[in-house]
Amino acid sequence: MSCQISAERIKATIDFHGHFCPGLAIGIRAAELALRELDNPRDNELVAVVETDMCGVDAIQFLTGATMGKGNLIHRDYGKMAFSFFCRESGKGFRALLRPDVRGEMDEELADLAKKSSSCMASEADMQRMAELRALLQKRFMNLPLEEMFLLTMQQQGAPRPARILQSLGCEHCGEKTMESRTRRFAGQTLCIPCFTQVEQKV
Fold it and tell me: What is the value of pTM for the model shown?
């Protein structure tokens, strides 16, 4: 079944991100899956945990209302095309992993073309072919049934705890106020992470 999000909302998502691409399409479908599986929770009840920093995260933010500022959009820098969603109210949660074979046979060709492009070795024909493949992927992602696009695993441990307001401490090296949980102790001083990194480095 093709994407059930309205054309108007999809256009607004593209406008928010700045362009349409395969990565954004993945995020749109992941958000659609979250809203469907969690029964359209209010944005402050939904928690999204993303394991990538790719374009699709913007779609998840825009369509679900989860944001880093509210503490219900959490980035874990694992480099995986995986997204977990929780509803605080119901306690329900799941992890969606983009199926490894979802790109069909386009992955290898696209990777080769991207490598050529990044090294300025791509011809005009290469660039045209890359644009064609990306458009095909976008269409594929927007039309695949969600079950064929993602592997779902139900989560038992519940949503990550809500963000807490913590005390800010002054870094004893630069003087800048720093959230207590992000400070380090070194040689009897309380330091922010950048200052700690400078003095603790062994090389």
Answer: 0.81
What's the whole-number average pLDDT of the chain? 90
Give phi and psi for 81, each to the nearest 5.
-85, 70
What domains sit in the chain, N to C, each tagged with a CATH number? 7-102+144-154 (3.30.1330.130), 168-200 (3.30.60)
pLDDT at site 122: 79
Give the CA distances from residue 182 to residues 49, 78, 164, 192, in Å, rounded to whole numbers and listed in that order: 20, 20, 13, 7
Question: Has residue 202 got a pLDDT over 80?
Answer: no
Rg over CA atoms, the chain: 21
| CA separation for the pair 76, 104 (Å, rounded) | 27
**DSSP element (H, E) containing 62:** helix 56-64
Q: What is the Cα–Cα distance from 174 to 148, expressed in whole angstroms?
A: 52
Counting residues of the chain whose pLDDT is more than 90, the rounded percentage is 60
- Does residue 140 have a pLDDT over 80? yes
